[in-house]
């Protein structure tokens, strides 16, 4: 790859971060709720709430928000808007660029709205889970695990292989480990990006991917060029609007922000499992008792935390989502034939979950005053 700085690959010559109005007031919530809300509001296309969550998270966590933005860009926007991903990566990785547009506060408000307004493709999340999961791709992992780097890169280029097999090869070729694991060995991200470039992936996306991999240390970003290659091989993708699950406003916090990554959300899901007879019955049929909470956390996530308002639909994306959700549910102990029933019963009982969230969150807010 060439050595062009990411700034030179931005879709516009200057990042247009103009003051919109008075900065929004921060939310009355802890950093975990703010972080959760930032991502979910972006998924739902709620730019105003995403902007407020970003202001709140920046006050609580400072410059850590820029890494968070890059993960959200690749996980939730992805190839739905390469331009938005490139811009978010450029702004997030270059303090000098942010200072040139009046500093972090205006820049973070701009990025929050940029990502919220962009079409969404969550295929990278499903694909990396499948590539990492032993249950989903153990046989392929064992095969790819003994390949040389050159062989892994050849496997990435193999248009006749499934996208799941190519994802495993790309993951292992990147050298970007999953957290603290020492699993895939040394890779060569420059050679992997060159492989994607040879397959036609746009240079600006490859530059953004390389930078985000270095900044975030998250293998999910490696999936974006592969998905671009796969999507470009089929019919022209389309963007369509989706119906969003209902939610309650708990003061200035929407109920969907209270998921398993927040204390109030985690305890609310546990209580729902204890109190809701329909959910208890379905889980008892399909899931070992000691795994009920894990299954519930994931099912609740797909009920109202995962959906996106503007979906970037390309040939193969629906299958990736379906299989990815199945992998995720299987990993928490739900058998394949039980996945639809578990997901449906949580979707059908969102009103009960929201009522519990309202009580739990309200009580915790009151106790903190």
How would you describe what is shown here?
This protein has 369 residues and is mainly alpha-helical. It contains 19 helices and four strands. The strands form two sheets. It has a two-stranded antiparallel sheet. A two-stranded antiparallel ribbon has the order 2-3. Helix 16 crosses helix 18. The radius of gyration is 21 Å and the shape is globular.
Low-confidence stretches: 11-19
Q: Gyration radius, to the nearest Å? A: 21 Å
Q: Helix and strand succession? A: HHHHHHHHHHHHHEEEHHHEHHH
**C-alpha termini separation:** 55 Å
- How many distinct folded domains? 3
Portion in strands: under 5%
Could you tell me the mean pLDDT?
Answer: 93
Total of DSSP H or I helical runs spanning 4+ residues: 19
User: Structural class, from secondary structure content?
Assistant: mainly alpha
Biggest sheet character: 2 strands, antiparallel
Side-by-side strand order of the widest sheet? 1-4
> Can you tell me the overall shape?
globular
How many extended strands?
Answer: 4
**Helical coverage, percent range:** 55-70%
Brief digest:
The protein is mainly α and 369 residues long.
Note the topology.
Layout lengths: L30 H14 L2 H15 L2 H14 L4 H12 L1 H5 L4 H14 L5 H10 L1 H12 L3 H9 L5 H12 L14 H10 L4 H14 L6 H10 L5 E4 L7 E2 L2 E2 L8 H13 L1 H10 L5 H14 L4 E4 L3 H15 L7 H10 L1 H19 L1
């Amino acid at each position: 790859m060439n050595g062009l700085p990411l700034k030179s690959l931005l879709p516009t010559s200057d990042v247009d971060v103009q003051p919109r109005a008075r900065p929004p007031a921060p939310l009355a919530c802890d950093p975990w709720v703010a972080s959760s809300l930032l991502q979910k509001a972006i998924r739902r296309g709620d730019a105003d709430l995403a902007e407020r969550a970003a202001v709140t998270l920046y006050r609580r966590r400072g410059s850590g928000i820029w890494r968070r933005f890059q993960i959200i860009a690749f996980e939730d926007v992805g190839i739905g808007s390469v331009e938005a991903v490139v811009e978010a990566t450029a702004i997030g990785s270059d303090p000098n660029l942010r200072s040139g547009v009046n500093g972090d506060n205006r820049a973070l408000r701009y990025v929050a709205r940029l990502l919220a307004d962009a079409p969404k493709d969550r295929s990278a999340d499903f694909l990396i889970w499948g590539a990492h999961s032993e249950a989903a791709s153990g046989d392929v992992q064992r095969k790819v695990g003994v390949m040389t780097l050159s062989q892994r890169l050849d496997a990435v280029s193999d248009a006749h292989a499934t996208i799941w097999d190519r994802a495993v090869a790309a993951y292992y070729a990147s050298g970007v480990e999953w957290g603290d694991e020492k699993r895939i060995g040394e890779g060569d991200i420059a050679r992997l990006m060159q492989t994607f470039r040879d397959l036609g992936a746009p240079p600006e996306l490859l530059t953004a991917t390389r930078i985000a991999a270095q900044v975030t240390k998250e293998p999910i970003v490696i999936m974006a060029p592969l998905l671009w290659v796969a999507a470009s091989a089929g019919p022209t993708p389309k963007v369509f609007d989706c119906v969003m699950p209902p939610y309650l406003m708990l003061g200035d916090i929407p109920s969907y922000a209270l998921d398993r990554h927040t204390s109030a959300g985690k305890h609310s899901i546990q209580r729902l499992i204890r109190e809701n007879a329909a959910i208890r019955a379905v889980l008892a049929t399909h899931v070992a008792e000691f795994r009920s909470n894990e299954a519930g956390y994931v099912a609740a996530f797909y009920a109202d935390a995962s959906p996106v308002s503007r979906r970037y639909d390309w040939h193969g994306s629906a299958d990736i989502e379906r299989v990815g959700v199945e992998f995720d549910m299987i990993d928490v102990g739900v058998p394949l034939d039980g996945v639809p029933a578990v997901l449906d019963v949580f979707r059908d009982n969102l009103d009960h979950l929201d009522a519990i969230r309202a009580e739990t969150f309200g009580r915790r807010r009151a106790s903190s005053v």
